Recover the amino acids of this structure.
């Protein structure tokens, strides 16, 4: 007999509970976390509609899938990974040159145990380096000045970030380039999601001109000794859902990412070389009137070796107000959510996950 427990999640409308099996994670079936080939994404509309049909099926079931032929050069990924390793290998004093405390907007370095994404679990045994959206780095923006001087926006000054890492060879250049290629890919994916919601593919274009877009390096240190799978140990990152629209995740070959299935069992979202993992965040679930799933996931690193991952989170423009997509509403499915400002939503959710109070 399957046994279940509950996982408690943070939401802006109070805690939410999901049922989860206590069984150890199992491998997913091919349909549960499919591998979707993006090789034809720059081809004709029919080819993209074909990709969108596969994405729709995945989005409505587990909410997670892999993408291959995604167009991000392996050499660039390798370079970014080397930079991440060099960064995390430094002393605490060196890493604190870019401490998140020096920035207003969650950029920079968070040390091991400084976050706890799930308050019912342990602290997160990971350290991260974050680069947030800056119009200066956006390849589609020729002149960032109007954004930087508009008081509606509060972009961080990244100078401190680059000064504090300038001793690492090509850190700035590689980190920005990798962020840019993922922004371009994420914009293509959001067009696929528009098609998957039976809307024109440019439906979200206007709200992704200067979107929330965070690129992270993450290091999950190894344990001193191998830890048995059922042992009580700190989570790498606790059970959570992602906040924004779409997450693109590169993970190394260590393993440890677990995803809650549609039947409430943990799935081992094992690394597949040459792929990225894609999942849906709470904001896209909201816009889709819960048709697309923002799925609970977590990471454990119970090996003696480090695990590295590099997620990228795409949201919408901070000053755009988004409502449930019209194709997701009919008489039987009235809109479950009011229109909401994307920026405020993101800020409040980040603050909640960091245990801060939320400004009105
Ligand atoms: O490191 C991973 O594999 C996943 C990280 C994650 O879920 C997150 O940062 O939201
Ligand atoms: Fe996540």
């Amino acid at each position: 007999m399957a046994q279940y427990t509950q996982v408690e999640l943070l939401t802006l409308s109070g805690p939410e509970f999901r049922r989860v099996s206590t069984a150890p994670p199992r491998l997913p079936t091919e349909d549960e976390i499919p591998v979707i080939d993006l090789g034809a994404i720059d081809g004709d509309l029919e080819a993209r509609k074909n990709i969108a049909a596969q994405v729709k099926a995945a989005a409505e079931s587990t909410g997670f899938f892999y993408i291959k032929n995604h167009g991000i050069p392996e050499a660039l990924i390798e370079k970014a990974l080397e930079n991440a390793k060099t960064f995390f290998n430094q002393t605490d004093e060196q890493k604190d040159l870019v401490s998140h405390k020096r920035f207003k907007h969650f950029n920079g370095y968070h040390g091991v145990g400084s976050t706890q994404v799930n308050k019912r679990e342990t602290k997160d045994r990971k350290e991260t380096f974050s680069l947030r959206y800056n119009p200066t780095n956006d390849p589609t923006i020729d002149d960032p000045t109007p954004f930087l001087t508009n008081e509606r926006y509060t972009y961080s000054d990244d100078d401190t970030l680059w000064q504090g890492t300038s001793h690492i060879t090509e850190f700035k250049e590689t980190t920005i380039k990798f962020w840019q290629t993922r922004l371009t890919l994420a914009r293509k994916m959001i067009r696929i999601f528009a098609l998957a919601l039976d809307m024109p593919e440019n439906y979200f274009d206007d709200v992704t001109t200067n979107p929330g877009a965070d690129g992270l390096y993450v290091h999950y240190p190894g344990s001193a000794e191998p830890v048995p799978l059922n042992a009580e140990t700190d989570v790498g990152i606790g059970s959570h859902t992602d906040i924004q629209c779409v997450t693109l995740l590169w993970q190394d070959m260590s393993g440890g990412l677990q995803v809650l299935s549609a039947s409430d069992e943990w799935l081992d979202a094992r690394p597949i070389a040459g792929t990225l993992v894609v999942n849906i965040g709470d904001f896209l679930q909201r816009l889709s009137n819960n048709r697309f799933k923002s799925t609970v996931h977590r990471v454990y690193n119970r090996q003696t070796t480090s695990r590295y991952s590099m997620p990228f989170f795409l949201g919408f423009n901070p000053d755009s107000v988004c409502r449930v997509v019209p194709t997701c509403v009919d008489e039987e499915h009235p809109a479950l959510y009011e229109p909401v400002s994307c920026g405020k939503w993101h800020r409040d959710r980040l603050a909640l996950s960091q245990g801060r109070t939320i400004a009105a």
User: Anything to note?
Assistant: Residues 218, 237, 242, 249, 251, 257, 297, 299, 309, 311 surround 2-oxoglutaric acid (ligand 1) (CB under 6 Å). Residues 4-353 form a domain with the Jelly Rolls fold (CATH 2.60.120.330).
